[in-house]
Amino acid sequence: MAAAKVLLVMTILLSTTMTMTMASATSSSSSSSAIPPPAFFTSSSPRRRRRPAATTTTTIAAAVPPSSSSSSSSSSSSSEDVAVVGCGVLGSSLCRMLLSHPSFVSRSIIGITRGTSRHDALRDAVLPQSSSSSSSSSHRSGGEDEGRFRLTTMEEAMREGRRYRDVVFCAPPSGFDDYPRAVDEVASSLWSGPSSGGGGGTFVFTSSGVVYGEGRGEVVDEASPTPGGDNPRVNRMLDAERSAVSRGGCALRLAGLYMLERGAHNHWLVGAAEKGTVVRGRGDGIINLLHYDDAASATLAALVVGPGVNAGKIFLVSDGSPTTRREICESALKNPRYGSFGMPSFEGDDDDGGRGGGKARGKVYDGRRSNEALRWTPTYPSFDEFMTSSSSIRQP
């Protein structure tokens, strides 16, 4: 009888131990399912299978139906705030414009970066400064704007699980192992979608005119074919565009970006002066340009017109004044910043066509339809006008 009692007690203890072990395992499994850091930032992230190269034609007149996964899920909270992924020169300029634009005066702006090392500098770049000569962030006079502007990291943004009505992806490809995947995951995880939240919002991906490849001087617009082929840079950008557009977002194909001390002109003139480097490409090769602030204002315009105009569309944005490499250098030399520099040399003469036997002449961007759709015009209608303007001369 005593032996039976002992056996019964041992059976009960064994059952209790097994139950506790199973509960612990379940809890551990649940904990491990938390949102991990975005894998597309790490070198160990799986590579996205490349789509077969193909000539594509996309027009601003034809929208692509958004993916159903772009709508917000019940486990995510929705926000009226605007998220800007990538706060470099373009992103910080956009944040400044958003804070002061009447359409966004009641909304907060969230800048999303890879890390926190530049957050203080970004706050100083975006928020107004006091008249004090000190550059310390303690001398900001942002007032209400300072309360509406917040910086966070991509890892934190993904972990929060919050979706934003409007999202701009303007981070460059250099910060990602898998650029198209990064665009797709931001659109699917951080954006509320084009038809949710009472009218929906906008997802803007800032692409590049590099997708048109080299040319012989022909005109291209939003509907022109994009060759793809064996160029990894072009294919990566085209895949990123598809990620944005297929979810109901839009892509802005931007011309070559510049400001006073940033852009091709600075690279060419400084390189020739300091290293004696020769400019790659023919002197009369066609280049399309766009000031960083104008790129930001075009992005802002896409947000303002909303998904009723931009959902599933591609736009082409430039200053509308194609120029040449030689003319770019001539315009830059008019500015006091470059007054002491000389004209660089170019690979190949204009007469013999330079590199590519005359094939690499460049292309002329025609973005008139995009300008009309976005209701946008550039502040600087040409590179030469900027370089000779009082605003460029006042810059340090």
What topology emerges from the helices and strands here?
Elements: H1 2-32, E1 77-85, H2 89-100, E2 109-113, H3 119-126, H4 144-148, E3 149-153, H5 154-160, E4 162-169, H6 179-190, E5 203-208, E6 216-220, H7 232-246, E7 250-254, E8 256-258, H8 264-275, E9 286-287, E10 289-291, H9 292-305, H10 307-310, E11 314-317, E12 323-324, H11 325-333, E13 362-365, H12 368-374, H13 383-387, H14 390-394
Parallel strand pairs: 1-2, 1-4, 2-3, 4-5, 5-7, 6-13, 7-11, 8-10
Antiparallel strand pairs: 9-12
Keywords: NAD, Signal
Biased composition (Low complexity): 27-45, 53-79
Family: Belongs to the NAD(P)-dependent epimerase/dehydratase family.
Report on this model:
The chain is α/β, with parallel strands linked by helices and 396 residues long. The chain has a domain at 72-258 and 290-319 and 364-379: NAD(P)-binding Rossmann-like Domain (Rossmann fold). 37% of the residues lie in helices and 15% in strands. The protein has a seven-stranded parallel β-sheet with strand order 3-2-1-4-5-7-11, with helices on both faces. The chain has a two-stranded parallel ribbon with strand order 6-13. Helix 6 packs parallel to helix 7. The longest helix has 31 residues, at 2-32. The termini are far apart. Residues 1-37, 40-75 and 130-141 have low confidence and may be disordered.
Brief synopsis:
The chain has 396 residues and is of the alpha/beta class.
Descriptive keywords:
396 residues; alpha/beta; Rossmann fold; seven-stranded parallel β-sheet; 14 helices; 13 strands; globular; disordered N terminus; NAD; NAD-dependent epimerase/dehydratase domain-containing protein; NAD(P)-bd_dom_sf; signal
